[in-house]
Amino acid sequence: MRLWPAAAVAAIAPASAFAVDYLSAEQAARLMFPDADTFAPRELALDADQLRALEAQGVRGRSARWTVRVAQHAGATLGFVVVDEVIGKFELITYAVGIGLDGAVRQVEILSYRESHGHEIRLPGWRRQFVGKTAQSPLRIGDDIANISGATLSCTHVTEGIRRIVAVVALTRRNGALA
Amino acid sequence: MRRRHPLPALRATAAAAALLAANAFAQTPTEAELARKLDALAAELANVKAQLQQLQQQKAAAGAPASPAAPAAPATSAAPVAAAPVAAPPAEPATVFSGYGELNYNRPKASENTQADVRRFVLGLQHRFDAKTKMVGEIEVEHAVSSADDPGEVEIEQAYVEHQLNPTWAVRGGLFLVPMGLLNENHEPTAYYGVERNFVETAIIPSTWREGGVQLAGSFDNGLALQAGISTGFDLTKWDATSTEGLESPLGAIHQELSLAKARDLSVFGALNWRGIPGLQLGGGLFAGGATHGQSAARGRVTLWDLHARWTPGRWDLAALYSRGSISNTAALNATLIGNPTLIPKSFDGAYLQAAYKLWTHEDYALSPFVRLERFNTAKSYADLGTGLTPSPAATERVLTVGANFQLTPGVVVKADVQRFRENKDNNRLDLGLGWSF
Amino acid sequence: MQDRWLSGAAALMAAVALAACGGGGTAGSSAAPTEQALSAQASLGEKIFRDTSLSASGRMACASCHDPDSAHAPPNALAVQLGGALLDQPGVRSAPSIRYLAFNTGFFFDTEGTPTGGFFWDGRAASLQQQAGDPLLNPIEMANTSKADVVDKLSRATYADEFKQVFGADIFSRPDDAFDRLTLALQMYQLEDVEFRAFTSKYDAFLRGQAALSAQEQRGLALFNNPVKGNCAGCHPSAKGSDGSHPLFTDFTYDNLGVPRNPAIPANADSAYYDLGLCARPDGSMASFKDLCGAFKVPSLRNVAQRKVFFHNGRFTSLKDALTFYVQRDTNPEKFYPLKADGTVDKFDDLPAIYHANVNTVEVPYNRKLGDAPALTDAEVDDVIVFLQTLNDGYTP
């Protein structure tokens, strides 16, 4: 797959001074949409109705403000990248989700992971499970997403986060807040 | 009077004074410039007001939908989640509390021995010094009340520093859990099925088993995780041949828990786990080292190894494990103990198969019935001491456990199970339990 | 010339004086080649221990009944020793060995309520020092009339000057203090002299990996340890501690075995007289513990094979008889107890009937009933005896 060499290059290139940060948000976005020439940040503010709609779907809104990077090539939208953080067990996990125009997940990248256990969520195999998922998918551990033994909390929280992001993007595209 | 040149500090002060004088008295700039300055200041003020308003709105909006998704404990780490973050990893030191607790109820066949107990109450502490270094500690109280006259115990279960050397390797030093089996490193009540921890991983692998030393932990991109190190080990001089402790758990009877531990004989350990395919874990561990520390005429070594597998396809959770331990030179070690009821065994082992299925979920509730079949023998063989003096091996016990874990919310579990023993039928029992972990 | 002779004589006298009162046990010590350096107090204690002049009879010292050559136990086969001013007063209990008592403590009830510790058969002395004083003042032992009487004899002993050097020149003018220092010196001697805790038996060598037990000795050890055979280790622990300490073969607790009455003790001629042991301390401090009547201290089994009489009343005169009593007390009581007028066995005849229930009948090996097989056969008792012989100090391979 053509994603592999890019990932390998990103891994070798010293991303930051801290050892457990694997990718920056910009690097992740470029991995997900290599054809894009700009990533326009779009600030979204969900109102109370939208948050309630999310709850009805079984997604906890958690935050009303979201920053979505819109991947564009020559003015045309290619897709969306959202960067988020969740707590694993003790530490924050920073990750990025790339969503295509069809609303399906294109790629998931782990930007930083500091827990002692569960590094396996960075493995392509685990992240590949999310590719193709939409707002209609269950996106639950023990259902359509397999757990990593010994890292249940990290897997559960990241999966929940991805489910939330997919739902938020779908919702805001439906009501026009996100073009 | 001779003019003196002002010193550099004084010159700077004089310049500042001049500037102030200029601003205050507006000797040189025109009124227009002043008005421009005022406009600029007003614009800045308006900007700041707008930002403040934004922040207040954010706070109000984030406060309304309460987020029970993130774990309740870390107060300091939860703060940055409200704003949509750019990838700036939080490197500030943070102190995080965690904990788990188990309350158990056991009703054996002889119902006069029914017992309810706060089996354990554990407080965990993690403090991050910098982006690469953290300290992990855990303190446990068993059986609720600990004093000279009460059955409880207070113990430090973990106390180590972990330093990330590079994205692949981390090094740990201190009192840490030995990587062996499926339960030892992951022993919270929400992590296993059944009220009581399984017998193989308590009687054979003496969970919660911790040693003091140095450990290297590496996690590779192919899904392999390697852990290896040098640590303290067991103490065979603690073996009490007059009590039955050694028959219940040979290694549990001689573990040191880094409490004034004899450390002349160190042990080495290693564990390899592969999680390359999501939902599958295959692995094994090995621990070996001397256990007599030059304090006994006979020298003995303890060796323990295990193989385990866990597979979670869809709603299933399947696990299998085999572990075997051996002690060397037990003929000489037992020579001074002959006739006593509990001599040091040469070998002991155990295995189990477990299957659980997430039968029903609704929002955060989840019901997972399970069944576990285990067999273990804490004295599988004895070294020959002579006719009439060599004890016979213990009978292999088989236990069938059938029950269910009911998850109230991630982190809280209510459990119930029945256990049937093949050998000691008096131990047949009904168990109920409440546990939490955060 | 006269000056030189005087100075020579003076030098000689000085040398003799130095030899006489020097420390290090030149006066009256046994010629043990491995004599260690005792402190001044302990060395005085050794002299006092052997000093027969400290008795009314002039012929009894501590060493008389606690003979160093007999494991500090009696050198004869008398059930009770004779004392008093004329050495014609019989005692009431057999004299125990006083070895391995450095590890004993004062009397207390442990967390489970088990009486533990204390010196003498009934634990009435809280320390070696307290124990040492009693025989000196006991009318049927060394029979001194008072502490002052003892101190008076002490002040005329050959080592009196040494005593004054160590405890003060005016010590004899304070008799109570002097008596106290005397008993202290005896305690220090027992604590310091390695003879009292030699750990030089064959079993000790075996624990160190320096000797092997014979097959019979091994069998005996196994029977000794086995909780369903001899179960001796239940009160006489045989295992090394995890700190490396060698076993003392006593847990310093008490037991009531219902040992038969010994007619060889003259006091027992009075059928109303009973030696009730732990509950009958002279000061009455244990009088309310009626369930402890008949209980006596568990002695160490080290050097037991050197003894000639066994149990608190010396009722048995061989180890074979003593061990046979353990295992056949309940299966064949007629071997040990007299018959009553109606022909039934007068079991536990050394205890009033109200205290028969205090006798231990639940622990192996004396938990049998009439008609049961004894816990050990005759041959097994012999094996245990052979093992007990490995507990004698002074083993050389």
Q: Overview of this structure, please?
A:
The complex is a heterotrimer of chains A (179), B (438) and C (397). Helices cover 31% and strands 26% of the residues of chain A. Chain A has 179 residues and is α+β, with helices and mostly antiparallel strands. The model of chain A is unreliable at 1-19 (pLDDT under 50). By secondary structure, chain B is α+β, with helices and mostly antiparallel strands. With 397 residues, chain C is mainly α. Chain C contains eleven helices and six strands. In chain C, the strands form three sheets. Chain C has a two-stranded antiparallel sheet. Classes of the chains: A alpha+beta (179), B alpha+beta (438), C mainly alpha (397). The interface between A and B is large, with 64 and 65 residues.
List keywords for this structure.
heterotrimer, A: 179 residues, alpha+beta, five-stranded antiparallel sheet, globular, disordered N terminus, C: 397 residues, mainly alpha, two-stranded antiparallel sheet, two-stranded antiparallel ribbon, 11 helices, 30% helix, 3% strand
Please give the order of strands in the largest beta sheet of chain C: 1-2
Q: Give the rounded overall mean pLDDT of chain C.
A: 91
Oligomer status? heterotrimer
Supply Rg of chain C: 24 Å
Distance between the termini of chain C: 60 Å
Number of helical segments with 4 or more residues of chain B: 7
Largest sheet of chain C: 2 strands, antiparallel
Low-confidence residue ranges of chain B: 1-26, 64-91
In which range does the helix fraction of chain B lie?
10-25%
Largest sheet of chain B: 16 strands, antiparallel, barrel
Into which percent range does the helicity of residues of chain C fall? 25-40%
> How many E-type strands of chain B?
17
* Straight-line distance between termini of chain B: 81 Å
> Helix and strand succession of chain C?
HHHEEEEHHHHHHEEHH
SSE blueprint:
The complex is a heterotrimer of chains A (179), B (438) and C (397).
Chain A: H1 3-12, H2 25-32, E1 38-45, H3 48-56, E2 65-73, E3 76-87, E4 92-100, E5 105-112, H4 124-128, H5 152-174
Chain B: H1 8-25, H2 31-63, H3 75-78, E1 94-108, E2 115-128, E3 133-142, E4 153-164, E5 169-177, H4 200-204, E6 210-219, E7 224-231, H5 245-248, H6 250-253, E8 267-274, E9 280-290, E10 301-311, E11 316-327, H7 330-334, E12 347-357, E13 360-362, E14 365-381, E15 397-409, E16 412-421, E17 429-437
Chain C: H1 2-21, H2 40-50, H3 62-65, E1 82-83, E2 89-90, E3 108-109, E4 115-116, H4 128-137, H5 147-155, H6 160-167, H7 175-192, H8 202-207, H9 215-225, E5 254-255, E6 296-297, H10 319-328, H11 378-388
